[in-house]
Amino acid sequence: MRLVLLGAPGSGKGTQAARLKEHLQVPHISTGDLLRAEVAAGSPLGLQAKAVMERGDLVSDEILLGMLKDRFSRADTQAGFILDGYPRNLAQADALGKLLESLGQKFDAAVQLVVDNEQIIERLAGRAQAEGRTDDTPEAVRHRLNVYDEKTAPVIEFYRQQGQLTCVNGVGALDDVFTRIIEAIQHGHDVG
Question: Is the pTM of this model over 0.90?
């Protein structure tokens, strides 16, 4: 199963990806974790990314795609993967499809966790308080949600037009959300 998890910051992607990893027996690939690992390892792509990040710039789609190509070539991804944090824009969605095609791998589904913005703000405010984080103020979260909506709306529409998108209600007990995701993957339809 080759799966992309979509959802706003605080929608529960990371939590559900960890559960899906165990259930589907495929790796959870977070582009943020992948990027940090490549930089720490001092790989050629990691060194390129480090130079970009040190300038305060965003890592290019080309570098991220190179890291994903390397990651997808490893044996543990042959049965599939759960991709979290990528694609974030239309160019990345298109590039991901072409990369998988070039590797002879079939893309299965994009699952969008749908959570109302006000609920996300409440979730992240609770997390900020519990973890002592200062980056999850309501104003900062609203800004991140606006940026996410603006950038990711075309990606969601792209997968919808491809017939590969299922939307899952991301509100409720963790077990209930997980069950909805499994149902959406198995049956290929929205689960609310």
Answer: no
